[in-house]
Amino acid sequence: MLPHKLQHKLQQRTEDNSLRELTEPSGLIDFSSNDYLGFSSDSVTSTALSTSFAKAISKKTQDILHKNGLSSNGATGSRLLTGNHKLYALAESAIASFHESEAALIFNSGYDANIGFFQSVPQRGDLIIYDEYIHASIRDGIQMSLARGYKFKHNDVAHLDTTISRLREMHHLNDTATNAEIYVVTESVFSMDGDTPDLKTIIEICKKHRVHLIVDEAHAVGVMGESGEGVVQSLGLQGDVFARVVTFGKALGAHGAAILGSEELKGYLVNFARSLIYTTALPPHSVATIMAGYEQLVASAEGAKQSAAIQNQVESKAKQPAAIKKLQTLINHFNTQLRTQNLTSHFIPSTSAIHCAVIQDVEKVKALSQELEKQGFNVKPILSPTVPKGQERLRICLHAFNTEEEIERLLSIIKEHI
């Protein structure tokens, strides 16, 4: 029998109409998944573009395994015991090179990477200042940390600046003799809003206050930048960021994540990040798929560059991988349609693949999601506690395999019912 307190919590969710349930994909037009480039798509709803990417990555994965003589199904242990097979070193070297970082360390997921970092890096007496809309995995990591956490208003650089100054004074950290450190953390693309902070100004603030910046790039990798390198690198700011978190279960179509930073940071995490030390490592196939995803990005980019040279084109867009170029075209079309259909005021401004219509009512947002499902679209409602009460929304994810016609139909239905 489930304890009474737990029954009460479930009953409360039911009464609030916010009870979560597990569902399976149903063959609807996908405007919900994080498979932004279609690298994992090979289904009846996929286009030829995404199916060809998925097949190419699958073949590359098998080639990598065969080339390195790996055929085991499991990693057999943690990376510090028996699970650190040879693909890890190859993959981490390639990832670090792609992202112009000194080192990379692979974790089993973005969740593991974030709790591993924040549980182990900030020490007792240190401070962590985080955007109020930061991902749950970072919040959980902060709760596990010995450091104290404080939030600043979402994407409010002025409030970040004053918060750092206030906390320095409050905790007597202005004395240069103190060993206390301050860590600031934000996302380059926020998962529930799709918006992007002013990273250049945030870095200026961090430099002024001599604090360390961590940027979670989970929803930017594969989407933002000329070759899908993410926001930080596309702005040339990688040398000013203490650590970046990149994940592979979204645009890369694989699984896992990596923390990018210095070799010293990597060595520290290997010794103290519990989510790395005390879990079974990713199996060879998973790491090979990560490598294949990056190879697909690089190969597409190189192919585009060669094509541009042949055609004597010099625009940067001509050098983009085909999937990223298609996705960016659809993002622009989506925003154009918001203006055309007078829906701009209902959506959070975004130039990423994530677009959210704030409905502010549980019943209404669930009803609209159900109506979209009836008409063939998979668009999920986002409810409290994932977002604050009164901020309920439809979360629309765009993909390289969607079409302009699908976007127009989707927004027409939303306009009729919003």
From TrEMBL:
Cross-referenced SUPFAM superfamilies: PLP-dependent transferases
The keyword Membrane is assigned to this record: no
UniProtKB keywords: Pyridoxal phosphate, Transferase
Protein name: 8-amino-7-oxononanoate synthase
InterPro entries, sorted: Aminotrans_II_pyridoxalP_BS, Aminotransferase_I/II_large, AON_synthase_class-II, PyrdxlP-dep_Trfase, PyrdxlP-dep_Trfase_major, PyrdxlP-dep_Trfase_small
Family stated for the protein in its record: Belongs to the class-II pyridoxal-phosphate-dependent aminotransferase family. BioF subfamily.
Domain Aminotransferase class I/classII large, first and last residues per copy: 28-414
GO molecular function, one term: transferase activity
Species of the source: Dokdonia sinensis
Pathway connected to this protein: Lipid metabolism
Record-level GO BP terms: biotin biosynthetic process
Domain of life: Bacteria
Cofactor: pyridoxal 5'-phosphate
Family annotation (Pfam families): Aminotran_1_2 (PF00155)
